[in-house]
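Q: Second attempt. The first request was missing the SMILES, so the protein and flavin-adenine dinucleotide are both included now.
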Amino acid sequence: MPTLTVAAVADVGPQTVAIELDAPASFDAAPGQFVLVRRPGGDDAGYYTISSPAVAETFEITVGYPVDESPEESLGTWLARREVGDEIEIEGPLGTIEYRGEGDVAVYAAGPGIGPAVGVAERAIESGHDATVVYRGDAPPHRARLDALAEAGATVAVVDSLDDLADFDADHPSVPTPAVYVFGFDDFVAEAKALLEAADRDPAEAAIESFGPA
Ligand SMILES: Cc1cc2nc3c(=O)[nH]c(=O)nc-3n(C[C@H](O)[C@H](O)[C@H](O)COP(=O)(O)OP(=O)(O)OC[C@H]3O[C@@H](n4cnc5c(N)ncnc54)[C@H](O)[C@@H]3O)c2cc1C
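A: Got both inputs this time. The predicted holo structure:
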C-alpha cells in the first residue's frame, strides 16, 4: 500500500477536517472516487472520498470524526489529528462513481458527503456547466467553498430535511437522472432515493455513493 505525505490539514466545519495529500505521479482520480485509508501499522481501514475538484500534485479527502471519543481512538479521530508531513497509507483510487466535467450536475449530500459534493460542483462550474448542491443539515462543512460556488453561479441549498425542497426546484428538470449524485450515510441515501422517486426519477440511474450505516 503506498504511503502518502500530508500536505495540509484544515478544520472545515463541525467535527470535520479536510486533508490534502501529496499525490503519487501515477495517481489519476476524480471527485466521487474514493481511497482506502489505513494507519501505518494499524488494523483498521476506512474509505474516504476525493473532495478536491481534480487531482494535481495533491488531492483532498474530507473526514468526519465522532464527538464522543471512546478510549480507543477511531480512524476518523486519528486522521483529524494528522499534521503536515505525517504519513498515511492509502490504496486506490477505487469506485466507479466519478465526475470529470461532463455536464450539468445536481448533488445531494449530508455529513462528510459535502466533501465530494463541493468537489463535483466545483469541477462542473470550472467546466462551464451548471451545478446544484443540496446539503441536509444545519451547519455544512466547507461553508467557504459553498459560498464561493454560489457566487460563481451554482445553486446552493441547505435544508433540515429533503422534504423541505417542496418549494425548491427539487426535480431539476434540466438535469437528467444520470447527472444526479448522492453522497452520505445510509439514512440520507434512503431519503435522497425517496426524493428522486417522488420526482419520477429512477434512483438506479443516479450516481449514489453510500458511506455505510450510521
Ligand atoms: C464508499 C465509501 C466512501 C466513504 N467516504 C467517506 C468520506 O469521504 N468521508 C467520511 O468521513 N467518511 C466516508 N466514508 C465512511 C467512512 O469510511 C467510515 O465512517 C469510517 O471508516 C469509519 O471510521 P471511524 O472509525 O472514524 O468511524 P466513526 O468513529 O464512527 O466516525 C464516523 C464519523 O462519520 C460521521 N457520521 C457517521 N454517521 C453519520 C451520519 N448518519 N450522518 C452524518 N455523519 C455521520 C460522523 O462524523 C462520525 O463521527 C465512506 C464510506 C464508504 C463505504
